[in-house]
Amino acid sequence: MRLTLIVATLLSALSIAPAFAADEPSPVTGNFTIASDYRFRGISQTYGGPAVQGGIDYAAPVGLYLGTWMSNVSGNQYLNGSGLEWDVYGGWKHSFGDVNFDIGALGYYYPNASANNAKRTKYDNIDVYTSVGYKWATLKVSYGVTDFFGTNNDTYGGACANSIDGYGSATDCMDAAPGNSRGALYGDLTVNIPVTEKLTINTHVGRQSVPHYSRLEYTDYKLGATYDLNGWAIGAAVIGTDAKKGWYYACQSSSTTSKCRKTGEPTLVVSVGKTF
Fold it and tell me: Could you tell me whether strands 137-144 and 185-194 are parallel, antiparallel, or unpaired per DSSP bridges?
């Protein structure tokens, strides 16, 4: 689905939302976060640097929802672009007592960004997802209906792992034409355990699979805590992966130097955010 169509639908839904009495919760909410690193499925998206993020959501009484969210990303990873990730999503959720269900679609858009190949391959991606939750735990599965963030013959055909010192490796290489990567699956289990009224323990484990690109598959994890400080969520978590270092890296290059960073290495991420 074209991003412009999704955005138009979102804006239309917001414009026709019915008025609510002052004592009723608003169907529109916003969120804002500052984090020391933006980790998506365990992988840094900001070259290990900080991120400023925010979004807006609309939830209809029947369970339908639409939303959009943005974050800065690294130009060392999303080349030639605006240094921005823009997500648009929508779906339906419903609860039966302590059990809740969610089904939807999510588009990731990186304005102007493209790989340095002849076809200028885009990183844009669309997933469909479904989840089921019970009390503190949520199990979710996402399925990629497009190539996995631009992974295909043009971007990975014949590519070799990086030794992380600025030079390539000839011992671990892709086939010349591995194929497309549509159908990538990401399954994850998240358990948020309330300890007190304000303190929550956050745990997560996920598994990324990529058809035809087994070298890009990995498991990620998170262990941390969130504290509610007068409506502000203060968080700290150790996040890491077992991703192959030679395939998950980003390099800062110039005419004379090249500095590479392993983007799946474990790290401590601290954050502060608010929903309003």
Answer: antiparallel
